[in-house]
Amino acid sequence: MQTVVIDGFTLTAEQVLAVARGNAKVELAASSRAALKESRDYIESTWMHDEAPMMYSFNTGVGLLKDTRIKVEHIELFQTQLIKAHSGGIGEPFSEEVSRATMLLRANAFASNYSAPRVEVVDRLLAFINAGIHPIMPQKGSVGASGDLAPLAYLGAAIAGFDEAEVMYKGQRMSAAEAITKSEVGPVKFDLKAKDASALINGCTASLAVAVMAAEDARNLLTDACVSLGLTLEAMRAEMAGFDPRIQQARPHPGQIKTAATVRKLLKGSTRTTHEARAIQFPDELRRTDIEYTPRIQDVYSLRCTPQVYGPVFDALDYIDNIVKNEINSATDNPLIFGKEGGGFEIISGGNFHGQYLAQAMDLLAMAITDLGSIVERRIARLIDPTLSWGLPRNLMSGLRGVNTGYPVIQCSMSSLVMENRTLSMPGSVDSIPSKANSEDHISNSTWCARKAHTIVQNTQYIVGVEMLLAAQGLTMTENLLPGFVLGEGTQAAYEEIRKQIPACLDGDRWFHNDVQVAHSFITTGSVRKAVEAKIGAFV
Predict the structure, then answer these.
(1) How many CA atoms lie within 13 A of 99 on its CB side?
(2) With 120 labelled, which of 295, 342, 407, 453 sits at a CA distance of 20 to 30 A?
(3) Do 113 and 166 meet the contact criterion of CB atoms below 8 Å apart?
(4) Catalytic positions, written as ranges
(5) What are phi and psi of 55, to 5 degrees?
(6) 42-94 pLDDT per residue, tens
(7) pLDDT > 90: what percent of the chain?
(8) Can you say how many angstroms the Cα of residue 3 is from the centroid of all Cα atoms in its chain?
(9) Distance separating alpha carbons of residues 314 and 526, to the nearest angstrom
(10) From the centroid of its chain, how far is CA 233?
């Protein structure tokens, strides 16, 4: 089993996903362990007295109580109360994979030695990850300002073994104490000392955990949307001039160039997307027969303009990935500790906990994927309408026409997801409401931005999967009308995989819900994408 070693500076999104979704184990780098011990030894020997300088959340209250000194004898009680006072989250809990990622990302932030909790806190987090103990953290309640205080407080409560804390362990929801006992990760009660609790709850780490998942899922979704586009181009016998590399070089955005190149690779060898194939009239195709069929010249925007629509999504994901990469290896609590030249340390208050980078990146992701889903849905609508699909059977229905109705309601369901996405894509990062008696007078809303972006990605997974399904249905229903015409190498591999999972033309006595769920699995499992890669190699 893979083991990820964290040092605060080199953790990758791929490693986060390996821990969150692949159950990889985690270790703390020896260099980080030594650095954490050095800084903590300095704290214990130099600042643990009532004449020490006032240091925010270390020996002072928080928020507007920043000028109130906490006596050394009350510091442990203060750290405990800090967790309880911030446990004000509401709503359904985050998934177990988000819980795992959050613990990993918090531990990695500490490993950089800018936050100054005890090394025992990092060890406790890693023990929970490796044992499969996942704190229950409500999704709602954070404004992404002084970090994700509410959800992270529940994480801190579980780590500390509070009686009220709950976790998921081996598929069951139980008290943290019960899970700690069953897993034998250590003592149930874990005392929180100076800076431990404030370090645990500070920083937009729940937002970041969701962002890592959303960005990864969006990247795979965009690849799948290239495949679904390729299948629809084949089904509609599309005009391919719009994907000519010379057109892309005339407007040389990287994402646009990549999209067109991807489509050309998927459809390499296709003869369905030729004038000769288009010249054959389908039974449901309205066309004059008294004159020679002329070249189509150019297609509608949902086909022809896909490089210009998909391209911005590719480029947006590159920007988002860079934000996520930096955030993964950032120290985001307050205050931070820094070594001084000549020895010793100093604590500096700042604002690295503010989640605006993540909030804006997730708003961009939300908008980009919403538009991706929108153009895919327009192609789905065309696939079921013979006046728009150049003669594909109406509703892609088979068997007894009229008795069987085909797929119009499936298209209707996809349009409902597009409308939901459009509402969710309204930016949350500009919606700042001052909180905590105006001590936080500008907030990022990063947690909501990440949550809604991930919801949009999940909705769009259905839309793209359904396009694959319906395009494959269209190909099957017109195969005998185009004898001798073949699909491209990549689209042929995709078509074969889809038909392996869903037999063709069976829309009679059929529970369509099952087809939609299988179509969704095309995306979540990557089965179609992987089949294409096995045939033609990496194509994006």
Answers:
(1) 26
(2) 342
(3) no
(4) 56
(5) -130, 120
(6) 988 998 898 888 888 888 888 778 888 989 899 899 999 999 999 999 999 99
(7) 80
(8) 23
(9) 18
(10) 28
Q: What does the block give as tokens for 57? A: 């959340």
Measured distance CA(109)–CA(28) in Å, rounded: 11
Q: What share of the chain is helix, strand, coil (3-state, %, to 5)?
A: 55, 10, 35
Helix axes 96-111, 30-46, angle to 10 degrees: 70
Torsion of CA 106, 107, 111, 112, to 10 degrees: -10
Structure tokens at 141: 């309640």
Task: Give the contacts of 487 (CB within 8 A, at least 6 positions apart).
Answer: 234, 267, 269, 270, 272, 475, 495
Whole-angstrom Cα distance, residue 352 to residue 346?
17
User: Residue 503 is encoded by which pair of tokens?
Assistant: 């037999």
**509, pLDDT greater than 70:** no
Q: How far is CA 342 from CA 19, 30, 65, in A?
A: 39, 23, 33
**Residue 128: pLDDT band with limits 50, 70, 90:** very high
Block residue for tokens 């006072």: 85
